[in-house]
Each structure stands twice: as C-alpha cells, then as structure tokens.
Amino acid sequence: MPVIAAIAIFLATILAMEGFAYAMHRWVMHGPGWFLHASHHRLRPGRFEANDLYAVIFALPSILLLYGGVNLGWGDWAIGVGAGIAAYGAIYFGFHDVIVHKRIAHRYVARSPYMKRIVQAHRLHHAVETKAGTVSFGFLWAPPAAELAEELARRGQQGVREPVGK
C-alpha cells in the first residue's frame, strides 16, 4: 500500500472515531451502558472510576487490528485503522482526562476559542448527573460558542462548573 494511502486511512480513522465516540456516548453510555458511565457524572472518590473500563473496551479493536495487520497478514489497512483508533484514544485521553478533568495535575488554562468551547461544552454536559437531559456528546468537536451560550441561557446558568474532584 502506498504511504499516502496508509496515512489517509490513519487520518480518516481518527476523524471517524469522533462520530463513533459521539454515538457510543449518546446512545450506549447514556443508555444501557449507564451502569458504568454513571460514575463519570459523580464525584470520584479515588483515582479510578467504573467508566474507565470503557477505555479498555474501546482499546480492544485497536489492539486486534494492529496485531492482525502486523502478525496475521490482514494488510496495511488494518494497521492504519488500528493506529488511528489508538491515536484517537491518546488524543481523547489528553483532552478529556488530562485537560478537562485534570486527572493529571497541570496548570494549563484554555485560552484559544476552540479549547474554551471544548471545555465549556464538556462542563455543560456534566451539569446533569443523570443519563437523560444532558447535551454535547462529542469531544473533539463541540457546538459553536453561540449555541452553547444559548443552551446555558435556556438552562439559566452562567457558567456550568463541574463538581470538585471531577
């Protein structure tokens, strides 16, 4: 496979993962998978939460595709897709667990309009501690700032704050 095709598959997979993550978050995690995800909408008493099992679950296809592509002759496409899934997971971890939820201590402050929008969208998502009634299920894409401000105003909130420890 030409290198440019492998890179295209890798990048397309990263983009597609945002759609997959949105669908899984909205219809699985806030649906039948709430029994694990509920821990993410509450104060975390320790370092880990039941929701962390989703990272393990979502890593399995990446591991399988990378193994199959490298060791079982499935083809370069499998390596590109597996690597794209892994890259999305790493990006997600950096944005979600490190920047937004501060599971690793840091002093980063969102200053760019994009990062402010991502952080605000996630805070708005966490304004609700139940599986219903929340908004903004994506993570690397968030609704435009005007839509977020409108939603905040509709809910009568001026700046949703996450619970301490989240």
Architecture blueprint of SSEs:
Elements: H1 3-29, H2 34-37, H3 53-71, H4 76-100, H5 113-125, H6 145-155
Helix pairs in contact: 1-4, 3-4
Would you write up a description of this structure?
- The structure is a single chain.
- With 166 residues, this protein is mainly α.
- It folds into 2 domains: 98 residues, no CATH class; 43 residues, no CATH class.
- Helix 1 crosses helix 4 and helix 3 packs antiparallel against helix 4.
- The C terminus is likely disordered.
Based on the model shown, name its key terms:
single chain, 166 residues, mainly alpha, 2 domains, 6 helices, disordered C terminus
Question: Would you kindly provide a brief summary of this structure?
Answer:
Helices cover about 60% and strands about 0% of the residues.
> Largest sheet, described in full?
none
Q: What overall form do the CA principal axes indicate?
A: globular
Beta fraction of the residues? Answer: under 5%
SSE order: HHHHHH
Supply the number of helical segments. 6
Radius of gyration: 17 Å
Structural class estimated from helices and strands: mainly alpha
Q: Strand tally, please?
A: 0
Estimate nothing, just give the exact number of structural domains.
2
Fraction of residues in H or I helices: 55-70%
Uncertain spans, ≥5 residues at pLDDT below 50?
A: 158-166
Mean pLDDT: 88
Termini, distance in Å? 44 Å
